[in-house]
Amino acid sequence: MRPFKHFVVSTISGAVVYSLTGALSPSIACFLTGWLIDVDHFYDYIKVNVWIFSVKRFLNHFDRLHPAPLGTHFYFFFHAHELAIILILTCFLSKLNLTLSFATLGYIIHLLSDQFTNGVSPLAYFLTYRVAKGFDKWSVLNIKQHGINKIMDKSK
Asked: How many domains does the chain have?
């Protein structure tokens, strides 16, 4: 899912959390974790573009070639089901701290949105799988054939 769509989904999620809890902190936590996880895309961008940065170029980099940005590797360290498991366990250990619980919810919503809308391998969002594949973009993403055609058409 593209960053703007994550922003919209996270805004809605945060608003729903606020309407359910009446508390600002959990709603902001849900919004921020649901949206700002994509900060890990910056690492992949820098690996390809060195330190040539502009917001427009960064957004075009991912919008034009999403979900398979330029470069040979796919890192996205924060996009990991293992982290979701750790966050869920931490929630239980914290006796379901409200802010942490809704931050975790925002994270999981983001992760599942990507998992089901990007047309990638079911294992692509496991960090251990990406490590095992050496972060090789095409081995990790295993994009469905229609996805590859769509990407190739956009890059022309």
From this structure: 1
Residue 73 phi/psi, 5-degree rounding, is: -125, 155
Q: Which domain holds residue 107?
A: 3-155
Burial class (CB in 10 A: 0-12, 13-18, 19+), 112: middle
Residue 88 burial class via C-beta count within 10 angstroms: exposed 0-12, middle 13-18, buried 19 and up: middle
Q: Which residue has the tokens 């942490």?
A: 100
0.90 exceeded by pTM: no
Which residues contact residue 75 at a Cβ distance below 8 angstroms, ignoring those fewer than 6 apart?
A: 40, 43, 44, 47, 130, 135
Q: State pLDDT tens for residues 21-67.
A: 999 999 999 999 999 998 887 777 777 766 677 777 766 766 655 55
The alpha carbon of 133 is separated from its chain's Cα centroid by a whole number of angstroms, namely 19
Which tokens hold the place of 134? 């050496």
